[in-house]
Every structure is written in C-alpha cells, then in structure tokens.
Amino acid sequence: MEYLLVIGGLILLVIAGDKLVEGSVIIAERLNVSKLVIGITVVSFGTSAPELVVGIDAALSGAPEIALGNVVGSNIANILLVLGIPALIYPFVCNDKEIRHSLFYMMLATVLFIVLAFYGPLHVWQGLLLITLLILFLFYAVKRARNNAKIRKHEAAFAERVLEDAGPLQDRKPPIVKAVIATILGLAGLVIGAHFLVDGAIIIARTFGIPEAVIGLTIVAIGTSLPELVTSLIAARNNHGDVAIGNIIGSNLFNILAIMGVTSLIAPVTIPDEFFHVDFPILLVTSLMLIPLATGKIKINRFTGFVFSTMYILYLLYLAEQANLIG
After folding, report:
1. 269 DSSP β-pair partners
2. Alpha-carbon Rg of the chain, whole angstroms?
C-alpha cells in the first residue's frame, strides 16, 4: 500500500504542478503582469512547488530529514540527471552571459546553506535568513531587469521562451475563472500528492530501516525533480540551452532558500553526519560543474550527458549500498 501512496503521490505532484503553472501564468497575463515577472517568479516557483509542499508536509509529519534529503537530492538530480538526460537526447549550447548572475547567487546560496548546516540543526533564525535572501534576490532580479534596457530585453525574451516551452497560451485562453480553478486544484493536488508521497516514504523507510534522509535523497528527490526534467527536455529540443540551464539554476536556488527556509520555520532540521561526508561535498562539486557549462567553456553534448548521467547512477548505487539495499 505504501508503494501505491508513493507512486500516486508522485503522479499527482507532476500533474498538479503543471496545472499550477498553467493557471498562474494565465491569471498573471490576464492581470497584465509582465512576462518578465512571470518568468522570474511564477514559472520558477511552479517547477519547485512540489519540493516546497513536500518539505512543509514532511516537517509537519515530524520527518524534516525527508525535506533536507529532498532539497539536497533534488539539487544534485537537477544537475546530473535533469541536465544529463536532455544532453543525451538533444545536445545543446548555452552562451548566455546573463545566466552567470543567477549562477553566482545559486553558488552563494549553496555555500551559505552548507555553512549554516555546520552549526547544528537549522532553526527559525536560519529559516528567516534564507527566506530574506530569496526575497532580496527576487527584488534584485526584477529591479535589475527593469532598470537595464539590455537586460530587460534579454529577460523578456527569456520569459517569452519559457512560456513558449510551457505551451502557447495564445491558443488556449480560457476564462480567468477556469484559470483560478486550475490554480486552486493545482495547489490542492500538490498538498494531497505531497501528503501521500511523504506518508508512503516514511512507512517504507521505517519498515526497511532505511534512514528517512536517504528516502528524501532518492525516491522523493527524483520524483519532485520531474517537472524540471520535463521543462529541460522541451527547452533542449527547441535548442534553448539558456532556458534549460536557467531552469536548473533557478530551481536549485529556490530549493535552498525557500524550501529549507520554510521547513526550518516549521520544525528544526537535524543534519545527519553522513551529509557532511558525502552529500554536501557532492552537492558542492556538482554545483561547481555548472560553471564551465553556463559560461560556454564546456559543450553540453552527448558525452557530457553520459558523464553526468553515469555520475548520478553511481551516486544512487552508493546510497543504496549505504542503506544496505544492495551488496
């Protein structure tokens, strides 16, 4: 039964996340919100919404380590899996200088998160710090794009491509009431799907004696990274390499600042020792691997995709071995 909860929860999260983005974008457009703001806020939030709701549900369920594993595991999966698989199928390039700014903030957030983890469980003040940094980043991104003509043009084009990859809204403009209903149903689906997923994951972990953090690093992380994978596949197919990498960078930034921030406000997040030995170093190394890709130093071709995908499989095998699932 717990397996059905996990599978059903994952499916519901993916469908609900898509409906949330679709409904939110339509509402924003009907309210004459610029594509710039939509691209920076609504779409970025929508693809990370499953991780956020799972984190909140895990904290409320007394299993904040699932939220921790979900964030760290999702960020690793976003780079190695979400970037690796599209590269295997649709090699693409990224030569967008503006993405470097977001990459800088993602690296800053990653390092800050690891440093905070060294000082014990994440409590309310760490959560407030992370959320404050997220708000500052969003304000900075919008203000910078609006004040600089060149960047504003770039950001508008970026948002336009993101929305095109999500689907041509011009061909489907339902009444705003339907968009509101879709948004509400999307949010409700996220809550229900996250609850099913977390409950099933907790049962599986406790039944087989697997650490809850490992469940978060694997099953939950992969499942909640599916929206990013779909977005990156579509972007790579359309040769929008900047959208594919921008999606990953934005999602990782949001995961750390928003999800860990909100989770820490709800319940203290204990950091297992294993994270400092393996998971945090891997998170840092994989994040650094984005630098030569985002700056065009290394081509994102099938060989790159093979290397990234292989690294992720080896990482999963290591986690399985440590949890005594193989060997």
Report:
1. 122
2. 19
Residue 102 three-state SS: helix
**Residue range 47-60, pLDDT digits in tens:** 677 777 778 888 88
Candidates 19, 34, 285, 318; CA nearest to 159 is 34
Q: How far apart are CA 99 and CA 11, in angstroms?
A: 31
Mean pLDDT of 156-177: 54
Which two tokens mark 85?
């698989």
- Locus of tokens 């440590």: 322
Long-range contacts of 314-323 (CB under 8 A, 24+ apart): 315/76, 315/80, 315/282, 316/218, 318/278, 319/214, 319/217, 319/218, 320/218, 322/214, 322/274, 323/210, 323/211, 323/214
Mean pLDDT (the chain, rounded)? 78
Q: What residues contact residue 167 under an 8 Å CB cut-off, 6+ apart?
A: 22
8 A C-beta contact, residue 253 and residue 102: yes
Give the homologous superfamily in CATH for domain 2-322. Answer: NCX, central ion-binding region (1.20.1420.30)
Does pLDDT of 272 surpass 80?
yes
